[in-house]
Amino acid sequence: MINTQLDTTLERYQAAIKSLDSSNIEVEQILGVFHARDAVQLALKEPKHIPSSSLNKLILSDAELRKKAEAITKVIQAETWENWRESIHPAAEAWWWRLESIAPHPWDNWDWLWKILSLASWATNISFLVNIATRFLSGGGVGFIGVAAVAVPSILTLLQASSETTKFGEEGFTKLFDKKIPILGKKIPKQYHQETKLGLNLLTSGFLISFWFCLPEISHLYNRNGLDNFDKGNFGSAEQDYQRAISLNADNTDAHYNLGNLYEEWQQIDKAKQEYQIAIGGDSAEPYNNLGRLYIKDKKYPEAAALLTQGLNFTKNPDFKKPEIKYSLFKNLGWVRLQQARYDEAILHLKTAIDISEKPENSKYIPNSGVAHCLMAQVLEKQKAPSTQALSSWKKCVDLGSITNPDEDGWLYLAHQKLHKK
Questions:
Q1: Distance of CA 34 to CAs 14, 46, 96, Å?
Q2: Which position among 70, 312, 323, 422 has the lowest Cβ density within 10 Å, counted as fewest Cβ atoms?
């Protein structure tokens, strides 16, 4: 039996489509087409036999409407489609009321490029994440800053990668974009989905690159925290902070120097030397002084003298404001010359060190200047100077020395013996 109602609605539908002039389409014509298609859909639900010829007409008409989708979407704004659907409440299968999702958009022609750039972007993000996470982990633990820096970008990057490589991820992002964005107050149009994904990838890349460039500053932060822990006697925490600072920035010479200082405190001399040797690459005199002193103990006098002389070059800078380092460099250089039997040079350097320590403004920086006097006493005895001069230096060695200094322990014992004998 022929479905007369379906044929009638199909004819109206075909006529409405033909009335669409691609060069001058009006909104009323588009609504007429949609209304006619609604009538066809309603007629299809009638419990009657539908001839194959009628179905073929419908299929061809729908194909014709889809061809005109691009021209129609140029007339109807994205917000208008949403308003229409809110007013009509079309059924889920009424695809013609969602024609803008079918019509190709000029921006869609570039989706292949945006997709390639998105893939390249999230691959770059993963590389940065691996690099950053490895640095934090190699420093003895991620820590709060590391968790914050790695976890959030990792989740975003994985979600973005999933949206490009899996159907589930792509559908998830599509559902997300189909919701109104609170900031924008509207949905993101379908033609801009790929561009939005790229934008999110690039934002994540920007964050990771910025964070990566901030690693040296974060390294200094850990180094300062290590100094605080060292001053409080929390040596284990200090070591972890220094190691983390170095893992974030291998060229942080301050952290290498401070770690060497800690190892020397623990009498791990070989480790201390290694850290001091790396720290020498910086612009500080301290590692030259400390490494030079350790070389003196190893009887590597020429190497020690070279290091101490290089360290003194930093003190020639008018901005150098560390009298305790300058004192220590001259004192250690005097020690080297004593061991090399170059007594005149030894006296010159030790006298300079003593003069620095005796300046009133330097007293708070150099509370213990006994070492220089202990060395001076030994040099005077080697030179066969009058005994009163040597005794005076031995006395100052005792008065100003400290038994807690491992370098002075033996000299203080010797000074007491000398004074007791006289």
A1: 11, 19, 7
A2: 422
- Total structural domains within the chain: 2
* Cα-based distances in Å from 121 to 118, 151, 200, 235: 5, 18, 10, 42
The C-alpha atoms of residue 364 and residue 323 are separated, in whole angstroms, by: 10
Q: How far is CA 140 from the centre of its chain?
A: 17
| Three-state secondary-structure class, residue 299 | coil
- Which long-range contacts link 342-347 to residues 24+ away (Cβ below 8 Å)? 343/379, 343/382, 343/383, 346/375, 346/379, 347/376, 347/379, 347/380, 347/383
Contact assessment for residue 385 and residue 344, using Cβ atoms and an 8 Å cutoff: no
pTM, rounded to two decimals: 0.68
Examine the domain organization and report whether 100 and 11 are in the same domain. Answer: yes
pLDDT, tens digit (0-9, with 9 covering 90-100), for 174-221: 666 666 665 556 666 666 677 777 787 788 888 888 888 888 998 999
End-to-end CA distance of the chain: 138
CA-closest candidate to residue 244, choices 255, 233, 228, 258 = 255
